[in-house]
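input
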Amino acid sequence: MPQNSRAISNKAVVNNAVEKFLHSIRERNVSSHTIKAYTGDLGNFSTYIGSRKWREIDHITIRGFLSHLYERGLGKASVARSLAAVRSLYRWLAQEGVVEQNPAALVSTPKLPKKLPRVPTIEEMNSVLDGGMPEIASFPERDRLMLELLYGCGIRNSELVGINVDDVRVSAEAVLIRGKGKKERYVPFGDAVKSALVAYLPSRQAVLSEFRKNTPALLINQRGGRLTTRSVGRIIKKIAVAKGLSPDVHPHTLRHAFGTHMLEEGADLRAIQEMLGHERLSTTQRYTQLSMKHLLNVYDQTHPRAK
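output
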């Protein structure tokens, strides 16, 4: 076989393996965000290694790939994710009997700065939720319910937009949430969510009637369609800023606030884990760090011997 044809054949083998790997993680209900990210990361990896055979790719090659990403201007977080994608690919290749070892396992993950998100205080959240919605709120009843659900239930943006009307159990004061990997959980809600819900449902029905639409979605846009995560992010930011919060507020900020404030008020860590839908307790324990940061600030500001 001519050398050029052999190179094209080797490249096709790698590309085909990457496609099969991506297909395998789609079948495992991996989140769409992860699949999209891995598709881009492994596409870059395939391009970088070119016509090399699997046995010709070692840990030095993979380090070269990471250096190439840095040269392109990617940050540490993006490079770390690319390495994670390559490691996952190699684990799958080993399971399939294509390779015997994982050279990516010998490459160190870039050290990322441990950034704790800035969480609004309980007082700041009360100032946002108390009183009327600002004038910029185009659908105030819906927007209040969005805020109450995000902060009152600690749910993810994707979980919020996935809620259907039938998922809300008003008498039980709980809502069915479909989380990552299609896992379902019930999350309780309080009087604030219930009041917002009662105020919103007639307005929702009026919009659907006007546009002659029918949808199971709880949260709809002004044309009667299901609200998107992008729209939620934009609306939350506008309202938060109008109410005096930082411009870097997004839906996940309210989820962080939920976990942090519950912990500060004495909630059990495992109960918070259940409500947030975390698979591992270690993920929930991050809120211990957030809460400790708050406690240290209070101590520094109030204890006479700390000044």
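quick obs: Residues 1-8 have pLDDT under 50 and may be disordered.
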